[in-house]
Predict the structure of UDP-glycosyltransferase 71B6-like.
Amino acid sequence: MAKQLVDQNDHLSITVVIISFNSKSTSMITSLTLASNKQIRYEIIYGGDQQPTELKATDSHIQSLKPHVRDAVSKLVDPTRPDSPRLAGFVVDMYCTSMIDVANKFGVPTYLFYTSNAGFLGLLLHIQFMYDADDTYDMSELEDSDAELVVLSLTCPYPLKCLPYIFKSKEWLSFFVTQARRFRETKGILVNTVPELEPQALKFLSSGDTPRVYPVGPLLHLKNEARDDSVDKKQSEILQWLDEQPPRSVVFLCFGSMGGFSEDQAREIAVALERSGHRFLWSLRRASPNIMKEPPGEFTNLEEILPEGFLDRTEERGKVIGWAPQVAVMEKPAIGGFVFHGGWDSTLGGLWFGVP
């Protein structure tokens, strides 16, 4: 997004403040710092070696970093320097809304960069409005209800039992309601979406009851970056196999960085894939025992968890892998369908590559 903005305005410069939680893994940060130029530069703030995993701890930790961000910005716009730029405003992400307080200290507006979609943003703001209007509001009691919620940002009523987990968990709900309240304090919200994709949601968000919304998408990370030599070798094997398959013949299953499955779930998917008769590439990972504290991992022995003989019977037409180079896979002509977790980046990626 920063690159698009500076490409359209020669007088604009952008400093991206990065909070690093791991002093030992600096390769990504070093590469960004080396990529700094007159219009886009990177400021690193060290947030400690241990990244918080609990919601309240994460929020408190970000709060504690406000003085560091303030100091970094003060140095950037030091009036004693002849080349000091004029501070125009702050852009914060969904989890750093406490930095609005820092922007207020400098007397500049704050904009929110919302990386999910406009429909979900409208739903979140609607839930927050309902929550604040009713002190006894409790979504967990409505989980088995047949009632529907009329949300103006969505084209049809939303079944309450289908609400995401974050609205049924008291801890998550409280956290996101607090975030949504702060969203309303911003001057504008930049949403990674396209007007033609979500006209109903953008119409609602432009009604005047919320900060002005700017659709700035599709913003996609189309560079595929292998993580090390062993990953690079596996990636080459996967891509070579795809090159050998007929056009639009392979179903790609990939469920995001947080998507893992139990052994029972993995077996059910395997049965479905075998019965379908289609070629497939399946990125399969083990469910995390606590997704807030650790990401999904790899299964150590696929033969033990998949149906007996599955790998042998599907050897000619399918591959079961761990981590997947999603962008590199999606752009291959062999991919004819995409089964995924509903993540917004993956949704935009599927549209971008024309994969249903």
